[in-house]
Amino acid sequence: MCRLLALTAAEPVDLAAHLRAFAEVARRSREYQGHGWGCAWPGKGGWRTYHSLSPIWEDDLDGFGPARAVVAHARSAFRDEGIQVENNMPFVDASLAFAFNGELRGVRIAESGRIGAEKLFRFLVKHGAARDGGAARTAVRLVEQRTRYVRAMNFVLASPGRFLVCSSFNEDADYFTLHARRGAGMTVVCSAPCEAGDGAWEPLRNGTLEVIPWFS
């Protein structure tokens, strides 16, 4: 069960500092989050990405420059399988970036992908989840209907100008509850409170499906 981070800011922020804060969340996690990590941030012509098989807290984060948005993901591979850099999120396709944390048991989704999270990404996009909140709710309901048991389905689906954040789980609220920090000029969503942004952290309600606009 992985850890994820999404951040949007009105002005460029020190990406390395925020990734170091996220690395501490991953390092302190009760489940091992060292099967690699990745991040995506907007650049000229689309998303720029970085993926590594190193644990994020052991990687060199000083080379990341300023950015106004980022999606990051630290991986805990299911059953310690599929530990390949190609399986590390965020997955990026054209203008979209996707990071997932959770477990879907007995899911029946006929989509291509190396691992379940990539299949889920393609299914959500195919059913319009990146288009608007209403389509996203319909797509999430379809996933739930085609899954025997949703242990947890937390994800960030980023498109130009916004993040779609989903938080849904049926057990282990302490672990799966996402948290948000909404301060002046910055919004951060993370798997656990971290030293990123200003203001108080608030837990997102189970069942949340929220569109978070980027700062313009």
Explain this structure to me?
- This protein is of the alpha+beta class and 216 residues long.
- It has helices at residues 15-28, 116-126, 133-145, 173-176; strands spanning 3-14, 37-43, 46-52, 66-74, 91-93, 96-107, 147-159, 162-167, 179-183, 186-190, 201-203, 208-213.
- It has a single domain (3-213), classed as Aminohydrolase, N-terminal nucleophile (Ntn) domain (Glutamine Phosphoribosylpyrophosphate, subunit 1, domain 1), CATH 3.60.20.10.
- The chain is built from four helices and twelve strands; from the N terminus they run E-H-E-E-E-E-E-H-H-E-E-H-E-E-E-E.
**Average pLDDT over all residues:** 93
What oligomerization state is this entry in?
Answer: single chain
Tell me the total number of β-strands: 12
Q: Which class of secondary structure composition applies to the elements? A: alpha+beta
> How much of the polypeptide forms β-strand, as a percent range?
35-45%
What is the CA–CA distance across the termini?
A: 33 Å
In percent, how helical is the residue content?
A: 10-25%
N-to-C order of helices and strands: EHEEEEEHHEEHEEEE
Please write the CATH class name.
Alpha Beta
CATH topology annotation: Glutamine Phosphoribosylpyrophosphate, subunit 1, domain 1
Q: What is the number of independent domains?
A: 1
The number of helices is 4
